[in-house]
Amino acid sequence: MLDEQIIKKLRGIVGKDDVFTAKEDLICYSYDSTWISHLPDAVVAPANTMEIALIVKLANEQKIPIVPRGGGTNLSAGSVPIEGGIVIALHRMNKILEIDTDNLTATVEPGVITAALHKAVEKVGLFYPPDPSSMFMSTLGGNVAENAGGPRGVKYGITRDYVQGLEVVTPTGSVVRCGGKTIKNVSGYDLMRLFTGSEGTLGIITEITVRLLPLPEAKRTLLAVFDNLDVAAKAVSDVIKNRIIPTSLELMDNNAMKLIEAFKPAGLPLDAAGVILIEVDGSVDEVGRQIEKVAETCKACGAREVKIAQDADQAAKLWEGRRSAFGVMAKSAPTVITEDATVPRSKVPDIVRAIQQIAAKYQLNIPILGHTGDGNMHPIILTDERNEEEMKRVELAIDEMFRAALDMGGTLSGEHGIGIVKQKYMQWEFGDEGIALMRAIKKAVDPNNILNPGKIFIRGE
C-alpha cells in the first residue's frame, strides 16, 4: 500500500481525477489476457511525457515498482503488476500526431489503438503492415514494447521493422529520443531496437514514429482444405518453396475450426483435418497470377478443395473467423493458455506433429492455429486453472513444446514476449552468458529495478 503522501504527490502531477486507488478500479488493471493477476497499489493515467517523467522520478526515489500498460491484451502476463506499485495507464495519450505523406511516416502517442492507425493511414492511400490479432484493442505502445507481429508478418515483418523513431522515459525519469524520419540512421548504438521488445523493463514509450508503405492496389484470399493436417502443414513450406511470399499464411486444425464455427460461423469445413488461409497482395495483375499459383501449389500438395474468395465480403468473413479465434477459445474453457513457439518455416510440419503428440500424451485439448508462413505457431491449451492435476499436465506439455521448438532451431516467442509465463525457459535458449548480458543491460539502465520488475528474468537467479 502506498503512503498517502505519495498518492498526494501523484495527484499533484496528473490531477486528482486520474489517480485511482479504490479496489474496484485496481481490479481492472490487475490482469491481462492470461490467467495471472495481482492488484497494483495505485493506477495513474498521465496525459503527456512530462507527467510520466515526474511520476517515474518519484517512483525511482521511493523505489516503487512501475508497470506501464496499454490495452492489456498481453499473453505472457507482461503487464500484470506482480509486485504491486503503480500502473501507468496510457489510454489518455491516444493521439495520432502526424501522418507525413512526404516521408511516409506516422507519429503517434503510445495509447493509439493499432486498428485506428490502420484506418487513418489507409484513408490517404498508405499502409501500416503490423496487424496483431488484438489490433482492435491493443495499442501502438504495447505493440512496440512486445515487438508484436500478426498474420501479415510472413511478407512484411513485425513491429521492429517499422519503428523509425521513439521517445522514451527511462527508469530514472530522463527523456530520451532516438531515430526519427530518416530512412538511414546508424549513429551510435541502436537504441530503438533495444527498447522495441523490451516489455516495459527498460523504458516507457511515450511517442512513436513508424514507417509506412503505399497501400497495395489489390489483395485476394484463398482457403485450401485438407483431409490430413500433416499434408496441410507441408503445403505451407511448399508455397514458400515455390518463391511465393503471401501477405499472410495461416493454419487452423479441425479442433480450432469447430470452436470458431460454434461461436462465430465463417463457413469453415468441419469435416476437414485442417485448412490454410492465404492472402496475397500487390498490383491487380500480380495478385491474379499469385493467387492462381498458390491454388495450383495447394492442389499439388493434396488439398481436396481450394476456395478463392470472390469479393471483399467473402474474404472478410474468412478473416473474421480467424481473428475471432482467441475470443472463441475463451468462451469454450475457463482457462485459455495461448503459446507462440516459433520454428523455421521448413520445420512447420515437424512442430505440428510434435504438438499433436504432446496433446495426446498429456490428454489435453490443444487446438492448433498459427502464422505458419513465418513459422509462428499458436497451440491453444483449453483447461481450467482450478483443476490442479490437469494444470500439472499442462505445465509438462508446455515444457515439451518449447523444448521441441528449440531443438528444431526455433525460439520461445514469435510475438507474445516472455513476461512471467516463459521466464523458466530463457536459460534454455540463451544460456548463462546470454542471460547475464541481458541482466547487465537491465541493471545499467534501471539500477533500482523499478520498471516492470519480475518480468523476463526469474528474480534472485
Question: What features would you highlight for this structure?
Answer:
461 residues; alpha+beta; seven-stranded antiparallel sheet; 15 helices; 18 strands; 37% helix; globular
Structure description:
The protein is an alpha+beta fold. It has helices at residues 4-14, 23-28, 49-62, 114-122, 140-146, 153-156, 191-195, 229-241, 254-263, 284-301, 312-323, 325-332, 348-361, 388-407, 426-445; strands at residues 19-20, 42-44, 66-69, 86-89, 96-100, 105-108, 126-127, 163-169, 175-179, 204-211, 213-214, 218-226, 248-253, 274-282, 305-308, 335-338, 368-371, 376-383. It has a seven-stranded antiparallel β-sheet with strand order 15-12-14-13-17-18-16, with helices on both faces. A five-stranded antiparallel β-sheet has the order 5-6-10-8-9. The model has no long low-confidence stretch (mean pLDDT 94).
